[in-house]
Amino acid sequence: MTTYEIDATDRALGRIATEVATVLRGKHLPSYEPNKMPNIEVVIKNLDKAKFTGNKLDQKMYHHYSGYHSGIKSRTMGERWEKEPQKLLSHIVYRMLPVNKTRDKIIKNIKFK
What we know:
This protein is an alpha/beta fold. The chain is built from 5 helices and 5 strands; from the N terminus they run βαβαββαααβ.
């Protein structure tokens, strides 16, 4: 398995996420094939030192609906970042991947240091 390291120090979270999604799919390789899953693992270092632009921490909302009446729960990006920064980045990258059978397998190749 090929390991690809990304340093998140002083980089915007969205820029990190797009690079991770591209590498996980193998689109940076000349041997890229959309129907093949590459054998690549991405290691992200210094995630706690990532930066945010604008007022995203206070204004961007994430919603979760349980399926029950009045079961919608909302959190700001700042609340999610304080509690679980790795899960937040994984969620962002997960939504950038193609919606098919390989998405759940590809997302497991993200590691954090």
